[in-house]
Amino acid sequence: MSLPFLLEIGTEEIPDWMIPGALDDLRRLFAELLEKSGLPTGELRVDGTPRRLVLRADDLPRRQADAEEKVLGPAKNVSAKAVEGFARKLGVSPDRLRLEATPKGEYYAFDRRIEGRATREILADALPGIILKIYFPKTMYWTAKNGPRFIRPIRWIVALLGDEVVPFAIAGVAAGRVTCGHRRLGASQIPVTIGDYEQRLRENFVILSANERRRKIEDGIGRLRVNLRPDPALIETLVYLTEFPTPILGEFDPQFLELPEEVLVTVMRHHQRYFSVSTESGGLAPGFVAVMNIDGDPEGLVRRGHERVLRARFNDARFFWETDQRKKLAERVSDLASVTFQAKLGSYLDKTRRVVQLVEELGGDEAALRAAELAKCDLTTELVKEFTELQGVVGGLYARAQGEPETVWQAIYDHYKPVSMEDDLPRNGAGRLVSVADKLDTLRGCFRVDLIPTGSRDPFALRRAAQGVVRILVEGRLHLPLRLLLDGDTRLEDFVLDRIRYYFKDVRGFRYDEVNAVLASGWNDLVDVESRLLAIQAVRPTENFEPLAASFKRIQNILRQARFSGGGTISSDLLEPGPETELYGEFERVRKAAASQNYRPALEAIATIRPTVDRFFDKVLVNTPDERIRQNRLTLLHTLLAEFSTIADFSEIVTNS
Amino acid sequence: MDSFQDLILKLKRYWADRGCIIQEPYDVEVGAGTMCPETFLRVLGPKPYRVAYVQPSRRPADGRYGENPNRLFKHSQLQVILKPAPENVIEQYLASLEAIGLDLRKHDIKFEEDNWEAPTLGAWGMGWQVMLDGLEITQFTYFQQCGDIDLDVVPAELTYGLERLAAFLQMKDSVYDIVWTQDATYGDVRFEDELQYSVYNFELADVGTLWKLFELHETEAARLLSLYSKACDKKRFPLLAAYDQVLKCSNLFNTLDSRGALSVTERVGVIQRVRKLAVGVAGAWVNHQQAEAAQ
C-alpha cells in the first residue's frame, strides 16, 4: 500500500535564475534520503514558481520494510551467567538464542527483528535538514542571528503524505495543509489535498508548471500578432519571475528610433525585460512586449505604465547620448585616470597604455593603435555608466559619430568579443588584435597580483578572457607567439593551456590524446597547433601510424631507462650492418620530409619507417655490452625521436598494442 | 490626484498606524536614508524599533543642472525600518501602496532580486527592487550586516523613491512637473537646488578645501573613537556626535568624487578610511548598548 507525497516550501520571491537549480538540488537530496532509508525511489517531480519550491512523489510506502539484524554474543564455552547477561541485554530469554559457527568457533547469536519506521516519521525527521541543505549561491537569515538560512524567508510549508500532514517546523513555520495563492489575485489561505493541489493553485492564479507558464507566454505573444525578436533567455527569466504570466503589447514614440538600436534593445531587454519587435523589413519597430504577473490589463493601465517608464528610460538614454557628444572620445583618454581597473593594477589609463604598447609589440597598424587608445574611453561616458553592458559598443558608436575610420570604430565596438563560445570574433584585424591585447593584459595583470580563479570563483572572468584569446588566435589565424606573451608565469601558462585543451578537445572535437601529443611538441603558435592536429587526425587511421606511435613510446622508455639525454652525434662506422644501418638509412631518407611545415605529408613520410623500426627492435639489442656501440645506438634512437617529434609527441598517443 | 505632499502624508500616516515613530529628516547631509543614525545605529543590537522618515538624499554625481527629467542631485526617500521584520512585511508593504491609491489587482508588481550593499558602511542585505508596471519604486532589504557586525535581529528596510512614485501616480514624464501642492510644482520648489548644487559640485567646489574639511572631520571622528575606548563613563559618551563626523566625511568624499578629484588609488583609500570610522562607531555603539543593558 503506497501513498502520494507533496512538499511545498512557500517563500518570499526567490531570484528567478536560482529556481531551476534549487529544484534539481531538492530532488537529489530527497532521492538520497529515500535511498538511504531503503525506500523505493519512484518518480519524483519538482516544480517551482518565485514563491514555492514543490516536490511530489507518487508512491511512497507507508513504512520501511522490517529488517533482521544478527547480534553476535559470547563464545559457546562461557559461563551460563554470561549467556544470561547477553540475553538480558537483548531483552529476550536465553532459550531464544542460537549458536552460530564462525571461523573462531561457535558463538551465541540472536536475530533481532528491526521494525521498519513509518515513512511519515522518517520524512518529519529529515525534511527540515533537506530543505535547509538546498544549495543557493547566497543565503540570508531572517529570524535572528544563528537562525536558519535560506535564499529568502520561508513563510509556509505544505507537507502531506496521503491525507496526513508530515509534522515538522522550520524557523517557527509548521508544515500543514494550507497553501497560498497569487499575491494579488488569489486567496492567501487555501486548504489543499494532494489530489486538488495543482487545481486549487490554478483557481488562485498560480500556474505551478514552468512548462505551462512558458506556453502561456508563448501563446500570449502569438496572439499579439507581432514580429517578435526571439529571446529564449528572457523567456526563462519571465517564466520564473511570474506565477501567472500574461504578455501585453506596448508602443513607443518612433522618434526614439533615431537612437542606435543597440541602446534601445539594451534598455528594453536588460532594464525592462521587454521583448523587442521587428518591422517587416527586419528593422526595429517602435513597440515592445512586456510580460505581466497578472491575468489581464483591460483598462490599459499597465500598458500605459510600462510605456511611460520606457519613455523615461529612452529620454534618459537620449539625454546621455547628447551630453556625451559634447566631449569626444579622444578627449576622454586622460579622464581614464579616475576609472579603476583593479585596485592593484591601477586605472584604465594605466591599462590603456599597456594595451597600446602590447598592440604595438604585436605589430598592430595605425588603426589598431588608434582603437587601442580609444577603446576604454566610453567608460567615462554617461551612457556606459548607465548601461554598463554596452561598453565597447557605445565607444564604437561614438567613434563612428565622431568620424573615426570604419576600421577603428568597428575595432572599438568589437573589442570585448567574443564573450562566449557562440559569439562572433571581432569583425576586423584591428579589433582582433586589440581584443587579444586587452585580454592578455588582464590575464597577465591578474595573475601577477594573485587574482587567480579558484573553482567556480572567477570574478574577473579570466577563463572567458583566455578562451577568447584562444579562439581569436586560432579562428582569426593570428600567428602570435602566445606562450612568449605569458610573461613566463607558469601558473598562467597552465591556466591558458587548460583553455587551449578545452577548446580543441571539447569545442573542436579532437581526441584528447591527439591534443596532448600535439601540445607536448609546443603551443606557442596556436594556428600551427591546429594544423598539426588536423594532420594527426588525418594520418592516424593509416595502418602504420599507431604501431609507429607504440614504437616511439618504446624508444622513449629505453632512453629513460638508460638515463640517456642525447647530445652526441651518430658515428656511421659504429652501426651494425643490417637492421641498424637500414634504420639509419631510413632516418636519413625521411628526415628532410619530416621537417616540412606541410605536416600531413611529413607525418605520412615518418609513418613509412615503421617496418624498419620494427625490424630494428626485432633483431638488434640496444643494451649491448660494448659501451661505444650502445652509446651510438642510443644516440641514433634519441636523434630519431627528437627530429620526428616536432609535430607531435607520439608517445602521448594511446594505442591498443 | 494626490499631490506630492499628500502622498508623503498618507505614507507617514500609514506607517504611523503600524507603530512606527515618525521622524523628521536627519540634519546632516547623507547619500541615503540608510545612513541616518535612525537606521545605521538603530538596526544594531537586539532592541526592537520601528521608524519612518523622509530623507533628502544627496548624490553629488547624479546632479544634472535640473536638465534631466529623471535625475536628481537630491531626491527624497521615504525610509521605513521595521525591526524585527514582521512575518507579513510584504503584505504590509503592498497595503501601503493600496493606501496611496493603487489598485494592485490592476497593476503589474514584481519583486526582482537586488541585494543592497554599502561598502563605506560595511553594510549589506538581501532583498528586491519592487517593480510597478516596470518602474522601480522601492528597495526592499532584509539587513544582514551593518558596520561589519552581524545583526542580532533582522530588520526590513523599505526605501520608497518618492519622486518616482509621485511621477507615476500623477502620470508626469518629468519630476519637475510633479504637483507638490495645488499651487506649486516640484520644479518651483526644487529647481534652484538642482542647478546650484550641480554648478557647485561639478565646477566650483574647491578641491583643496574639501580635502581639508575631510581631514578635519576624519580626525575629529577618530579622536572621539579613541576617547571612547578609554572612557570610564561610556553611558554619556557622544557616539552620535562621532557618527555625524563620519557622515560629513562620506558626503565630502562624494563631492570630491563628483568633482573628479580622486585618482583610483585615492578613491579606494578614502572608501577604506570612511568605512573604518563607520565600523568603529558601529562597534562602539553595540558595546555601549551592552553596557547599558548590563546596568
Q: How far is the first residue's CA from the last residue's CA of chain B?
A: 53 Å
Give the DSSP E fraction of chain B (strand runs of 2 or more residues): 15-25%
Radius of gyration of chain A: 36 Å
Helix content of chain B: 40-55%
**The CATH homologous superfamily of the largest domain in chain B:** Bira Bifunctional Protein, Domain 2
Quickly give the structural class of chain B.
alpha+beta
User: Unreliable stretches of chain A, pLDDT < 50, 5 or more residues?
Assistant: none
Percent helix of chain A, as a range, is 40-55%
* Number of beta-strand segments of chain B: 11
Q: How confident overall, as mean pLDDT of chain A?
A: 92
Shape, per Cα inertia axes of chain A: flat
CATH topology of the largest domain in chain A: Hypothetical protein af1432
Examine the secondary-structure arrangement and name the CATH architecture of the largest domain in chain B: 2-Layer Sandwich
The count of strands of chain A amounts to 19
Counting DSSP H or I runs of 4 or more residues, the number of helices of chain A is 23
Enumerate how many helices of chain B there are, as a single number: 8
Secondary-structure-based class of chain A equals alpha+beta
Shape of chain B: globular
Q: Mean pLDDT of chain B, as a whole number?
A: 94
| Number of domain modules of chain A | 5
How would a textbook summarize the main sheet of chain B? 9 strands, mixed
